[in-house]
Design brief:
- This protein has eleven helices and 13 strands.
- The chain has 452 residues and is α/β, with parallel strands linked by helices.
- Catalyzes the phosphorylation of D-fructose 6-phosphate to fructose 1,6-bisphosphate by ATP, the first committing step of glycolysis.
């Protein structure tokens, strides 16, 4: 990742579009790539600095909502080019030179052929001109690759009623030939916030190794999330390749995690005091909201800092990302629970097993675990509405399964069926709405269902 190139590089999750473009004149959307279409499939997303990041997340266009969300007048014959220009404008990514216009780039110190920079940069910054591994700032990737001919096509996502093909291009990910931070002047800090996620230590390890390849000498870990910026009893942890060499073999986080923390002003004050000019933040929604606020505060102070956000979600729900880290482990562990539920249900008279898995807004863990196990009869996910009662309801189908198979297993994502539960205004420490327990609700409904 080319954090040395830019003022802010955000690798974000789908509910945080405002992290991508913090400029006031831009319109922001929330949801899966930033207006969540039910059933939208994730790709992968990296929000990077303009021309210097790992890529960018772009908005998913929701069928029948474009006119409301984007203010498109389809009677205007020029609506298509206007939409494309608006798309480009909203995702004109921020860069260090937006604030420091006199910033002078230097040749990148990153080259996979060398793996490490020349010693002490004695003869200036190394540049392998024959190596063509850099990404051009003008490179783009096509966001949508399917040209739907009809709104009735399977999975169709259309901007207008005629399903017009509109090209939307996003920045290509990868290292650039020029950077804007001198590695020997960088003090990089890494912080992990929120809950635990499989693969956290592996991400920490790769960040440290990559920074050392660039030539960064001073790398530290901030202990226990944002709290480590304010708690005087928590000291920075020096990091190097030797320190992190084998951490990926262990679970949890080498740095520890926590939710919440000090104010943004305190965090930036501490960064200035400690001389941190590159911050890597690993976390979820609330964590990245904090990273965005840190970025904005640094801009306001004209504090030359790169804030890099790494999405910590095992839900695999980020557009453009092939697979989020930790997802495979989550699916594998979920199958263990499914297997146990199947054995118990299959061994009982008219047994019904209910397995609730993670997935607040998306059901990819539940869906993939169900398909992989081959033992799930009903899979319920947030993207697909369902009924419990009635001729086409879940309970009616369970009755059919009991009559034909003698047992059944239900897999449900935690965010599914929330419309059946009483809503509360309660939020957890990270600011997420506390969901009702759909697993218990289904269990209770099955218990009182007379025909089951």
């Amino acid at each position: 990742m080319d954090a040395l190139s830019c003022s802010r590089h955000v690798i974000t999750n789908p509910h945080e579009v405002k992290l991508a473009v913090p400029r006031p004149h831009h319109r922001h959307h929330r949801g899966l790539a930033y207006h969540h279409a039910k059933g939208e499939r994730p790709g992968g997303a990296f929000l990077g600095c303009r021309g210097n990041g790992r890529g960018v997340v772009a908005p998913s266009v929701v069928k029948n909502q474009s006119q409301r969300d984007h203010g498109i007048d389809f009677s205007d014959p020029d609506w298509k080019p206007k939409f494309q220009r608006d798309f480009e404008s909203r995702f004109n990514l921020p860069h260090l030179k937006d604030i420091f216009r006199d910033a002078v780039p230097i040749p990148s110190t990153f080259c996979l052929r060398m793996r490490t920079p020349t010693e002490d940069f004695a003869d200036g910054y190394p540049s392998d001109e024959k190596w063509h591994g850099y990404i051009n700032n003008s490179d783009r990737v096509l966001l949508k690759v399917i040209h739907y001919s009809s709104t009735t096509s399977a999975g169709a996502e259309c901007i207008d009623p005629d399903c017009t093909w509109v090209e939307q291009w996003v920045h290509r990910a990868g290292p650039r030939a020029e950077i804007y931070f001198r590695p020997e002047e960088v003090k990089a800090a890494i912080v992990t916030c929120g809950g635990l996620c499989p693969g956290l230590n592996d991400v920490i390890r790769q960040i440290v190794i990559t920074l050392e390849i660039y030539g960064v000498k001073e790398i530290v870990g901030i202990p226990f999330g944002y709290r480590g910026f304010s708690d005087e009893g928590l000291s920075e942890m020096p990091l190097s390749r030797k320190v992190v060499q084998n951490v990926h073999l262990s679970g949890g986080s080498l740095l520890g995690v926590s939710r919440g923390g000090p104010s943004i002003t305190e965090i930036v004050d501490t960064m200035e005091k400690r001389g941190i000019n590159m911050l890597f933040v690993l976390g979820g929604n609330g964590t990245h909201a904090g990273a965005n606020a840190i970025h904005n505060e640094c801009r306001k102070r004209r504090f030359k800092v790169a804030v890099v956000g790494v999405p910590k979600t095992i839900d695999n729900d980020i557009l453009l990302m092939d697979k989020t880290f930790g997802f495979d482990t989550a699916v594998e562990e979920a199958q263990r629970a499914i297997n146990s539920a199947y054995i118990e249900a299959h061994s009982a008279y008219h047994g019904i097993g209910v397995v609730k898995l993670m997935g607040r807004s998306s059901g990819f863990i539940a869906m993939h675990a169900s398909l992989a196990s081959g033992q799930i009869d009903i899979c319920l996910i947030p993207e697909v509405p369902f009924h419990l009662h009635g001729p086409h309801g879940v309970l009616r189908h369970l009755k059919y399964l009991i009559e034909t198979k003698g047992s059944a297993v239900v897999c449900v994502a935690e965010g599914a069926g929330q419309n059946f539960l009483e809503k509360t205004n309660a939020k957890d420490a990270s600011g997420n709405i506390v969901l009702g327990d759909i697993g218990v609700h289904i269990q209770q409904e099955v218990g009182v269902c007379t025909f089951l």
